[in-house]
Design goal:
The chain is an alpha+beta fold and 499 residues long. The chain folds into two domains: 221 residues, Beta Polymerase, domain 2, CATH 3.30.460; 133 residues, no CATH class. The chain is 47% helix and 9% strand. Strands 1-4-11-10-5-6-9-8-7 form a nine-stranded mixed β-sheet. The N terminus is likely disordered.
């Protein structure tokens, strides 16, 4: 198989215009469901069977892009400079051991995409022809199988390094009980590398990198779309969004983070299937919401969520609070502008390296909602009533997102403590003890974001930040004594009745 060298590579236009690799003659006997490796260690992939169905209009959301699976063979490029940017030795160890034992293994997905656009990958994922059990046998002491809908292997190196290793998948079989319901509930049908690439969500995430041969393999036109800065589904957009509506959130995440344009047909499919997000697994939806807030592009992401109708099924309280994007009333428009400023302040902090915790993220989303309801009900001056109202909103959030009790409790306390920064609590209020409370740092972070967004309250924040520094500077025994006094004050004894 002929390949094209790519040396001294850097991300710029027209790099991949002439990198289509002609398919050489196949050698050896063809085996059903198998592929044979050439002398260079690369796998020869047979051309796909011709599609005899009537060609749909490629502008339709039901139509696959003409490049999807239309190549006679994969596009393969020599990319030694890209391969040398791989900084995770553990991922290379996993791939090398799998290859030595006769399995195909590649880096795949977001790590390859990020390397190509000049970003540093957060983690490295491996795709292989080995089944989860085979991977487990090759790494008996430092791996375990996880997942139900999508079974894969976590290979551990130390306490922090985890290499996610997944077996090549093919398209899941259609559900016989309801042909109209395309939602994927199980995805454990193993396949080939080409099939695995074509079942992924977006073309830019369907690229494979072999760090041993220093080659990139593209089955789906992902190199072309990276060059065009285009985000496009692999296959028919409407079908892919119906299979997994969480792809709507992932599309928005990638488009805003990478500054890519979402293909028109893909965007139309996102808008059409946004209500289906209500049927998705709540933990997956919550995870994507948190990723949007931590991306550094939360402002643009939430604007896209509102524009395509995806905010209502995932955060209905926030959607009602902000109102319709195009015809909101004056109060809703003012609340939306305040929320945008808050997200802008968050993005600014994330760009400096700040990573908000889950309770801070959720408190940021719900602070305006709780404040509005408290004002409308006249509860803003009663700490007890305000706390009860906050609990009602967070309980509703827990029911919708399956939020853990630990995170829900911290989120509730962070919201209630916002009022404490302004007015204290009572004549028995002890500022030093308040600064030593477990949730104080997160509550102060939210107050700082609010002050930055509103342009006022910064002096109050500085005052509490100084008190916090003084409290932390206390000797450990004084801190513990202060906390014991607070606990004793909380356990009030009942006065004896007078005879």
């Amino acid at each position: 198989m002929e390949s094209v060298a790519l040396t001294n590579w850097s991300y710029c236009p027209d790099r991949w215009r002439s990198l289509q690799v002609p398919h050489g003659p196949r050698k050896g006997r063809a085996h059903r469901g198998r592929r044979t490796a050439g002398a260079d260690g690369l796998v020869t992939v047979p051309a796909p069977a011709p599609d005899l169905r009537p060609a749909p209009d490629h502008h339709s959301a039901l139509a696959p892009h003409p490049d999807d699976g239309a190549h006679d063979g994969p596009r393969i490029i020599d990319a030694p400079d890209i391969a040398r940017r791989v900084r995770d030795e553990n991922a290379q160890r996993v791939i090398s051991r799998l290859a030595r034992n006769g399995h195909e293994a590649y880096l795949v997905g977001g790590c390859v995409r990020d390397l190509l656009v000049g970003r540093r990958p957060k983690d490295y994922d491996v795709a292989t022809s080995a089944t989860p059990r085979q991977v487990r046998r090759l790494f008996p002491r430092n791996s375990h199988i996880i997942g139900r809908r999508f079974r894969l292997v976590h290979v551990h190196y130390g306490h922090e390094s985890i290499i996610e290793t997944a077996t090549f998948r093919s398209e899941p079989q259609a559900r016989e009980d309801n042909d109209e319901d395309l939602l994927i509930v199980e995805d454990n049908v193993f396949g080939t590398a080409a099939e695995d690439a074509r079942r992924r969500d977006f073309t830019v995430n369907g690229l494979f990198l072999d760090p041993n041969s220093e080659r990139i393999i593209d089955f789906v036109g992902g190199l072309e779309d990276l060059d065009s800065r285009l985000l496009r589904t692999i296959g028919a957009p409407l079908v892919r969004m119906q299979e997994d509506p969480v792809r709507i959130l992932r599309a928005i995440k990638f488009a805003t983070r990478l500054d890519f344009h979402i293909e028109d047909a893909t965007w139309d499919a996102m808008c059409a299937t946004a209500p289906d997000l209500a049927r998705s697994a709540p933990p997956r939806v919550l995870e994507e919401i948190l990723r949007l807030l931590r991306s550094g592009t939360a402002l643009g992401a939430f604007r896209k969520l509102r524009r395509c109708g995806a905010l209502q099924p995932i955060l209905p309280d926030l959607d009602a609070h902000l109102g319709p994007l195009d015809h909101a009333d004056d109060a809703q428009r003012e609340r939306a502008e305040e929320f945008d400023r808050l997200l802008e302040a968050l993005d600014s902090d994330v760009h400096t390296g700040y990573e908000p915790t889950t309770p801070v993220c959720l408190a940021l989303l719900y602070h305006g909602i709780v404040e509005r309801d408290a004002t409308e009900r006249g509860l803003e001056d009663s700490m007890a009533d305000y706390a009860q109202l906050t609990g009602e909103h967070i309980d509703a959030l827990c029911e919708q997102t399956r939020l853990s009790r630990r995170h829900s409790g911290r989120t509730r306390r962070i919201l209630v403590q916002q009022g404490t920064f302004l007015r204290g609590s009572s004549r028995h209020f002890r500022p030093r003890l308040f600064c030593l409370s477990e949730d104080f740092p997160e509550a102060l972070e939210l107050f700082r974001l609010r002050a930055a967004a509103q342009g006022r309250g910064w002096d109050i924040y500085e005052g509490w930040a100084e008190r916090y520094r003084e409290a932390l500077a206390m000797p450990a025994e004084e801190i513990e004594a202060e906390r014991r006094r607070g606990r004793r004050r909380g356990r009030r004894r009942r006065r004896p009745r007078k005879s």
